[in-house]
């Protein structure tokens, strides 16, 4: 199943500047495995030591939060567009 993954600016330093990539993935586990192979430096920014999605990483499929689509069990459809959005904190208090 071919899907497109959008890599936000905050993570592109781990993808050699690649902003978008087309991958074959049936589900979130497959997607992360494909990204791990292509961009090994990205792995620790997507999953924690237990292999779970990082707490502050939001994943959208066609602009819908994947948590409302079934989470990791969601099956990608041909042409889905996935957006990885890390929560970024900081600034002045």
Core attributes:
single chain; 93 residues; alpha+beta; Ubiquitin-like (UB roll); five-stranded mixed β-sheet; 2 helices; globular
Largest sheet: 5 strands, mixed
Total number of distinct structural domains: 1
Derived from helix and strand composition plus strand pairing, the structural class reads: alpha+beta
Number of strands: 5
Instruction: Report the principal-axis shape.
Output: globular
Provide the β-strand percentage band.
15-25%
* Distance between the amino and carboxyl termini: 45 Å
Order of neighbouring strands in the sheet with most strands: 2-1-5-3-4
Overall description:
The model has no long low-confidence stretch (mean pLDDT 91). The longest helix has 11 residues, at 28-38. The chain has helices at residues 28-38, 43-46; strands at residues 2-6, 20-24, 57-61, 64-65, 81-86. It has a 5-stranded mixed β-sheet, covered by helices on one side. Helix content is 16%, strand content 25%. It has a single domain (2-86), classed as Ubiquitin-like (UB roll). With 93 residues, it is an alpha+beta fold.
Question: Concise description?
Answer:
The protein is of the alpha+beta class and 93 residues long.
Which secondary structure elements does this structure contain, and how are they paired or packed?
Blueprint: E1 2-6, E2 20-24, H1 28-38, H2 43-46, E3 57-61, E4 64-65, E5 81-86
Parallel strand pairs: 1-5
Antiparallel strand pairs: 1-2, 3-4, 3-5
